[in-house]
Amino acid sequence: MTNEQTVVRRAKAGDSGAFEELVLAYEKKIYHMSLRYTGNEQDALDVTQEVFLRLFRFFPQFQEESRFSTWLYRIAVNANLDFLRRRGGQPDMSLDDADEDSPVFEVCDLRYNPENQLERMELQRDICEGIQNLPPHMREILILRDISGLSYEEIGKVLRLEQGTVKSRLARARGKLGAFLTQRGNHSPKHASKEQLEVARK
Amino acid sequence: MKDCAEYIIKMNQYLDGELPVDELSDLLRHLDECPECRRHFESLKVITFETRHLRAETPKGLHESIMQAVDREKPVRRRRVVARLTALAACGALLLVLSNSVTPFLRNVSLFGDTASSDGAAVQEAAAGGSSAEPEEKQNGLRAITGMIAVPGLESDDEGTEQTQPEEPAEGGTDETGGQPVFTVPKLSVSERVAYYVIATGSKSPAELFPVESVLLETELGETYILLPGTEQAREDACRTLEEAGYTLHENLENLPETDPEAENGLVVVFESR
User: For an interface test with B, which of A31, A54, A106 has the most B Cβ atoms less than 10 Å from its Cβ?
Assistant: First the structure.
């Protein structure tokens, strides 16, 4: 049994010290995730609180068939979606929900100079906005992968998706995000050279 | 484009460290040959890199605000469970009724078996609450009690649960059972079945033996109600815990409400026999 499993069992049995250990271990991750969902700090704070309240309420129902983190991320995804639903309406520039079966991927083409800090900041700001403009099911998968760092397998468990769906949906989500960034002016005729590919190869 | 679509998935897998090794050379060959996919790949690298490097400064007081919210939740959760169990008082499936006036006597008597003492008689009288009590009830340990009286100190539920006023037992309560003892709990008329009941007596509160969140109610009069998962394992664990701590378990109880093995919770009731 891992150390976390021990702590989880204690917390589930009502040990408040163990519960707090879990809060400490996950609060920053859940906050960051919620920040990318909601787009502002106050809402992210509120949702993070809500996630841990739900954890506290539902702990007796936690079955150890799944990993604790998987279960917690599922709670977090639901809490964020509920929050967005309550807040109502998607942002004006919401990108259309892509047809899951569509073979079309949007090809993006970004301008990027890693040495120009101003450009990077601008791009990061646009990425944040772009994430919030993604359709919910694309937003959540992108956040789970690139913000929370979950593997495809973990994402599949959290969102209850087949691996094939995880792969294709994530690819579409990044394509959409890229298209958004391109629309925002982050475009350039600069193309990747074969030399750059050599770097990827290494 | 169909082929490119497949390669777009593969390049995403590659950037996520999820591309099987034996598919890498095929992807790189395609990128060599397809300028459009190459551009897309370069953009994807930028997007994933920058997304993964988005920083989020954790607000001061995040941890404290979470823990405070959880602390505020604790009594609420307990009230919520009480609320669930207190609805539908008239369903007739009452557990135990112990009036305020009766309970102090219970502390001094043997609650079960045929060893009713004079205190037992006092229980009987008090339990009757002015109504006529059948003599044969004395043979039963825990006495038939009619009427439901609110327990002092029980928090009122602020989530819409109506206060249960003192009222007559459910229609046909005692009569329906043919004079058998009817056991109910103040304000805990069980509106939904539980998987099991564990009834025990002991000289002190058993609250510390169970997770704090499972302790539904402790009355000033020495009754403790503990709500546990409805599994057989939870029941066995509770029995073992109580026995090991010196509590006496009582199994030959009559007229407990029906149980439902599929129910979510089981209920432990412990009386302090000080």
Answer: A31
